[in-house]
C-alpha cells in the first residue's frame, strides 16, 4: 500500500520466484495515481517495487538499494528528473533508466539521451509498451559481455572499467559513447543503420530524429580517430549508416 505521509513506499510481493524477486524496480514518481498504476503493473509481472515521490528520496533509495532498473518522472519535487537521471548514470551507468513523462518535445528527448537515459515513454502511455521497454532494458543489461578489453590503432578500451586511453593518455567517454563503441566493436566490419543503433544502443524502436547517432559518432571520431576529418575506424557508408573498421 502507498503511504501518504512518507516519501518512500517499499512494496514487495511475497513468495516471488527467485529470479523475479531479485529484480528490483525503483519508481520515482510524485503523482499518487501514477504510483498506483506503476506499482500494480510491475507487481502483477512479479517484480519487487519501491516507490519514491521526490528526486532526493529517489536518489537516496537508489544508492541504498541498487535497483535493477529505474522508472523516472521528469517533473519531481526537490530535484528535477533530468538531474536525477544524470546522477544515476554517473554513479551506476549500467543501471537502466526509463523516463516516463508528459514532456514530449524532441529537444527534451535528445537531452535525456545525452544524459544517458535508456528509454523514454510519453504520458499517456500503454502499460504494455512501458513493460516491454523496461524488460528490453533489463535484457540488454544482463546480456553476456563477450568483450571486456579491446585495442585498435593507438586506442585501448576497458569496457568493464569504462576507461579509455589513446596514445597512453586517458580519454573521457560518456556512458552512451561507451555503449555505442562496444556495439561497433561487437559488430566490426558490418554496416549499421542509424535505426539499428538507436534501437540496440539507446533502446528506441522509433525516434523522431537520428541526429543523436551522428552526434555521438562525431564525438567518438574526435576522441579516438587520428584525424576526425578523415575517419579511419568509424566510417560513413552513405545512404546506409556507419561501419567500424579496426
Automatic annotation (TrEMBL):
UniProt cross-references to CDD domains, sorted A to Z: trans_reg_C
InterPro entries (UniProt xref): CheY-like_superfamily (IPR011006), OmpR/PhoB-type_DNA-bd (IPR001867), Sig_transdc_resp-reg_C-effctor (IPR016032), Sig_transdc_resp-reg_receiver (IPR001789), WalR-like (IPR039420), WH-like_DNA-bd_sf (IPR036388)
SMART domains xrefs: REC, Trans_reg_C
GO cellular component: cytosol; protein-DNA complex
Record domain Response regulatory: where: 24-138
Residue span(s) of domain OmpR/PhoB-type: 147-246
Annotated positions of the 4-aspartylphosphate modification: 73
Alphabetized UniProt keyword annotations: DNA-binding, Phosphoprotein, Two-component regulatory system
GO biological process, one term: regulation of DNA-templated transcription
Domain of life: Bacteria
Annotated GO MF terms: phosphorelay response regulator activity; transcription cis-regulatory region binding
Ranges of the DNA-binding region feature: 147-246
Statement: the UniProt record of this protein carries the keyword Lipid metabolism: no
Pfam families xref list: Response_reg, Trans_reg_C
Its biological purpose: This protein is a positive regulator for the phosphate regulon. Transcription of this operon is positively regulated by PhoB and PhoR when phosphate is limited.
Record-given protein name: Phosphate regulon transcriptional regulatory protein PhoB
Organism, scientific name: Edaphobacter modestus
